[in-house]
Amino acid sequence: MLFSILLLVVGVVLAWFGGELFVRGGVGFAHWARWPSAVVGVTVAAFGTSAPELMVAINAALDGTPQISLGDVLGSNVVNIALVLALVLSISGMKAEDGGVRRDWTVALLVPLAVCGVLYDGWFSRLDAALLLSGFFIWLLVVIRHARAHARGQKPHASRVSPVRPVLYILLGLGLLIAAAQFVVEGGKGVALALGWTPFIVGAVVVAAATSTPELATTLISRIRGHHDVGLSNILGSNIFNVLFIASVAALIKPYSVSLPEIQPSLVFGVLTTLLILPARHGHIHRWRGMLLLALYVAYLLMTLEQNPGHS
User: Fold this and answer.
1) Interval 282-306: pLDDT, tens
2) How far apart are CA 145 and CA 185, in angstroms?
3) Which pTM does this prediction carry?
4) Which of 177, 164, 257 is closest to 214 using CA atoms?
5) Is 176 strand, coil or helix?
């Protein structure tokens, strides 16, 4: 138990330093490429901070327990909003300044509904995975076109800085974030498995919170630095990437059966939490939403644990 706690502490420290470098590099790259910072948040930052979920998905599928991956990605989507973003909002509200945020919010809202549709028969097939992946690449294409259109509308900088330093910051920060998540995952899994939880519950409760460590560090530091769009877009992009891409990769490797009652809390709370972060007309997301989201997270944990067969 002490060793697991030590792993958790090391993971949190690495996540903080990794998040600091990652945000600095992402903002610098956006400035160089003349992209909106929200685009960097929803693509580069989101893909990077979701790397731990991808590693968990591949390893779980190869080990014959892909349900851990599904629990991880669905649980991470709830954690990202109801815990990670909620903590930041509770301290101080946020403001979405890029129009693409509403587009990504809409896609993130549709993700749980799409999952419910393809898994209604209780089986996650390769065809289901292919359909979700198709949706992912369509969304990614739209985001890239938005970034290119924005870049064309910006005047070139008189003294355009080199992208080398921002890219190095991104890579170094990403490396620390991935390492941090691995430390936290290993520490958390040891505790959860000792409690006798099912693979899905382990994924939805423990691994999901652990692999969301990079999102927490990135979102919090983005807010401290005043880069609202990076933090908010990172959360939305991570949620889209988690399900449409990562969950599909696991199912492509090994199709598997799904217990609908078991995943229902994650899907329902995925929709509810996403609805609560719709920016107001002027882009503001106020503090009271963060407090409400934290209450929803507690309810989500209780409902998810109730699905565990060994729960008393």
Assistant:
1) 778 888 998 999 999 888 888 877 7
2) 36
3) 0.76
4) 177
5) helix
